[in-house]
Structure formats: structure tokens, C-alpha cells
Amino acid sequence: MDKKIKASQLKKRIAVEGLKTLERFRAEFVPEFASQIPEALEDLDRHKSGFFNSIEKLEELDENDASIEAYIHERSDFEDRHRKLKSFLRENQPKEEGTLNDTSGLASSTLAFFRPNASNLRLPKIELPTFDGDHTRWLSFRDRFIAMIDASAELPAIAKLQYLLSSLKGEAALPFEHTPLTSDNYPVTWAALLKRYDNSRLLIREYYRKLHHLPGVQLVCVDKLTHLVDEFTRFVNGLVKLKEPVDAWDTPLSNMLMMKLDRETLLAWEKHSVHFPRDKYKDVIAFVQDRIQILKSTNDFACEHIGNVRKVAGNHHQSVQKRSIANAAASNATLSSPPAHSQQLKCPLACTDAHLLRNCPIFIAKDVRQRS
Asked: How far apart (Å, rounded) are the C-alpha atoms in residues 183 and 89?
């Protein structure tokens, strides 16, 4: 037992001495040392992992109350020194090697979900949210940015500011174009952004205005119908998030949506809901979503079917042409075969009757898109 305790104490001491070495590096730091920072960060994480592993073993092996109390104080002291040192190293690391300039994605979720014993954890990159000044996208941007960046206790303020500025696009970025990258500017910039966009009264107006001005669908088109439903649902969900009484808006919402539907979809809804006592928004939106899925499925099936028919018809047409040429040659020689044009009266859709395509009952029964 004593040997295990001594071994753990030795590992702990090695980790503490390593931390002291890095603290001396910080005290003697000059800009020329910046190239050594990536290695220093790796050493810092390794020392932290070794320290906490040894502390955990000591807490298991040495159950003396005084020892446990001492380990708790050592753990707290090490965490405080580690946090300050890591913040210093991140702020002074070279830009070309630093992670703060990688604004295409957040390299590790440990910024927001940090655990002392998981310093070597590597998670997939998470794309940072962006905001271009569209009020209807503010709530989503705000919540995601707070969860990923603002709420991170380990991320320094200067890094948060850089992430924030890189996330702003277009109209939203213009007021902060010349904001200096300093720690003090992060809370100021974030507060200015909240003041400009985080206004429930104006957001409710904008969501409702966007609902009214959504373009309607004139003819049956799966893509346009999908866009209409997706945007309509997004705006309604935004109003729900802003605590508007959407559950009591069945009549205005359902009628607003129906006014934007094409004639065929509207007729299908009327047939579907003829026995309903009233129009409910959730019923209308669910019906249109089901109709989109049906249209997509039938379109995919029809495209595959038409492709197969064209393939067969093309082969048949080619063989008919070859036979016609051969028959024409024989006719010139013997004058006993029927004219070549009689062979061309066969339908390219491989019908048994002899007729032109425009007279084919199968072709006539199809709609305009399928005929094309």
C-alpha cells in the first residue's frame, strides 16, 4: 500500500514541477518565444492529466481525513494555476498556428463541455453559427452562440470576441467592422448586439410580417411547396418561442396558409377535410407535408418509369428504322413488299396496335409533364 502511495505522490510531484517550469516560461516570456507555445500547451495538458490521475489514486489509497482535505486544496490550487497559465498561452500563441483563427468550425466541444480528466478528448468539428442581420434568424443564432461560446468558462474573452466577429456577416457585421480585438471589447460588443436585435416586440412584428409576405404557390411544384411549408413552419415556431398564443390562432394561420396553396392542393384539402367541423392549423400543415411526400414519391417513380419506357422505345425505334431500310431496299429490287412507311406506323411505346404516338391512348392518358 505504501509503495502505491509513494508512486502516486511521485507522479503528482512530477506534474507540479512541470507546471512550475511552464510558469517560469510565462514569467520570462518575450515575443520570440511565441513559436514554443504550441508545445507548451501540449505539456500543460499532459501535466494536468498526470496530476489529476495521481490525485485520484491518492484519494482512493489514503483515507485519512487530513490527507483528503490536503488533496482537495492541492486540486483547487492546481486548477487555478492551470487556468491562468493556459489563458496566457492562448492569448500569445502565433496566429498562424492558433485555434482562434479557425472560424470555419469549433475544433473541440471541450470548450463548452470541459472535464478535468478528459483533456485528450478529440471530438468532431462543430460549425459556428452565423448571423447576417435577418431578424427571423436571431433567436437561433443567439441560443447557439451562448451555448457554444459565451457560456464557456475556460474560453478567454478575447477569443470569444474573435468568434463573435467572425460569426457576423453582412448587415450585422458593419457596425463592428473596426472593433479592436481586446478582452474588454467582448462584453461591450455582445451587449450592443443584444440591444440591436434581442427585442421581443420587434421580433414578433417581423415574424408575423414574414408570414404575410411569403410567396404563394401558383402551380403544383414540389420544391416551391416544400419551401412554403418550411418557411411557414419556421416563422410560426419563432412566434411560439416568443410566447405568442399560437395555439389559439387556428383560423388566421390555417387560412393564411391555404391562401398561399396552389389550386390542386387546396382542392385536395377540401376533399380531405369536408367533414371537419373547423380548420385547424396543425391539421392543414400536416396534410400539406403528407402531400409533399406523396408528390415526391410519385415523381421519383414516374421519372424512373419514363426512363425505362424511353430506353425500350428507343431500342424499338432503332430496330424499326433498320428494318425499314432493309425493306425499302428489297422493295426497290422486287416491287413485291409493302411501302416502307407502313412499318413506321408502330407506336414507340410498344403498343400492339399500329398508330402514331399522338393517337396512342397510353400517351393521351398521361399529364403534360409525363408526356414531355
From this structure: 15
